[in-house]
Amino acid sequence: FDVASDIEYIGDDDIETADIKDHVCDVPVTTIQENAFNSKNNLKKVNIPETVETIKRSAFWGAGAIEEIDVPKTVKTIEKGAFVRCANLKNIIIRNPECTIDPSTSTVSDAYNNKTSKYSYSGSIYGFEGSTAQEYAELNGYDFKELSPEVTNIQVDEDGNVTWNKAENAVSYR
């Protein structure tokens, strides 16, 4: 099921939070289509479900109020211009270390320079060390911050039994 190609209208222009459903009519939502959230200037937050695998070209073109996007580990492809001209985008977290990200500077950008005809991004891209997110950030001269691959909380009880909890894909600064 594709968001925007199978749904003709998504909310009004005043929408501030988009909770993309993981299923529509019992069919998983796997794609955020081209221009799905184009120019939604008041959109501040988007919750992308873990059923999404592809974010198409220009899906969030000009969604100027978004400050952070958390791309789940299920997303395999981010197409050219998916987050183009998102003026207030400060952080994008890409949790799939092997996600295919179009290398264009417009894929993640908050500005366009008419004189140089170039896109730029002044925020931070979060990803894992050695990931495609890191490659994309470095290729385009964007700030990259590393996600901790796994945080483990190890506890030993009074009988010497060891237990642990894993918090996968935790965000941390280094």
What's the short story on this structure?
The protein has one helix at residues 132-140, and strands at 2-3, 17-19, 23-24, 27-28, 31-32, 45-47, 54-55, 68-71, 77-78, 91-94, 100-101, 111-113, 118-120, 124-127, 143-146, 150-156, 162-168. The protein is mostly beta strands.
3D structure, described in words:
With 174 residues, this protein is mainly beta. 5% of the residues lie in helices and 32% in strands. It has one helix and 17 strands. It has one helix at residues 132-140, and strands at residues 2-3, 17-19, 23-24, 27-28, 31-32, 45-47, 54-55, 68-71, 77-78, 91-94, 100-101, 111-113, 118-120, 124-127, 143-146, 150-156, 162-168. The strands form six sheets. A five-stranded parallel beta sheet has the order 1-5-7-9-11.
Question: What are the SSEs and their pairings?
Answer:
Blueprint (H helix, E strand, L loop, with lengths): L1 E2 L13 E3 L3 E2 L2 E2 L2 E2 L12 E3 L6 E2 L12 E4 L5 E2 L12 E4 L5 E2 L9 E3 L4 E3 L3 E4 L4 H9 L2 E4 L3 E7 L5 E7 L6
Parallel strand pairs: 1-5, 2-6, 5-7, 7-9, 8-10, 9-11, 10-14, 14-15
Antiparallel strand pairs: 3-4, 12-13, 16-17
Entry keywords:
174 residues, mainly beta, five-stranded parallel beta sheet, 1 helix
Largest sheet: number of strands, sense, barrel closure: 5 strands, parallel
Major sheet strand order = 1-5-7-9-11
Rg: 18 Å
Strand-residue fraction?
25-35%
Average pLDDT figure: 81
User: What quaternary form is this?
Assistant: single chain
- Secondary-structure-based class equals mainly beta
